[in-house]
Amino acid sequence: RKGFFRLALQHGADLVPSFGFGENDLFETLTPNSLLRTLQLKAYKILSFSMPIFYGRGVFTYNMGLLPFRRPLTVVVGDPIRCEQTPNPTAEQIDALKEQYISALRDLYKEWA
Fold it and tell me: Which of 17, 84, 98, 113 could cross-link 78 (Cys pair, CB 3.0–4.6 Å)?
């Protein structure tokens, strides 16, 4: 869970916190009591992982397909977090950068939610 931050420090890449609102509305999932949902739950019990079953709109039809529905999506972008290039970052440096990034994400959410 920290590889993203380790790579940013190793390469000196700035991290830009961003947050998307409305992503859950782009696709629909199965209704709780449908046949496909029942099969999905049985497959989960057997395989110990769940295959997501979702649908959106089609190219020529709006009721079924793999394209996302045309619904509002708002993406907010925060100020970049500067990372000094460090060939071998310590665990403390990685943790500090992770906390700074998460704090910036929370601030974005508080400001725009």
Answer: 17
pTM across the whole model: 0.77
Of 88, 83, 56, residue with least CA distance to 69? 56
Measured distance CA(66)–CA(55) in Å, rounded: 6
Which residues, 6+ apart, have CB-to-CB distance to 71 below 8 Å?
22, 25, 26
Q: Which of 83, 80, 96, 81 is nearest to 12 (CA)?
A: 83
Scan for tokens 């782009």, then name that residue.
26
What pLDDT shows up at residue 9?
Answer: 97
CA–CA separation, 2 and 15 (whole Å): 13
Q: Does the pLDDT value for residue 32 go beyond 90?
A: no
Q: Which of 101, 110, 75 has the alpha carbon at shortest distance from 8? A: 101
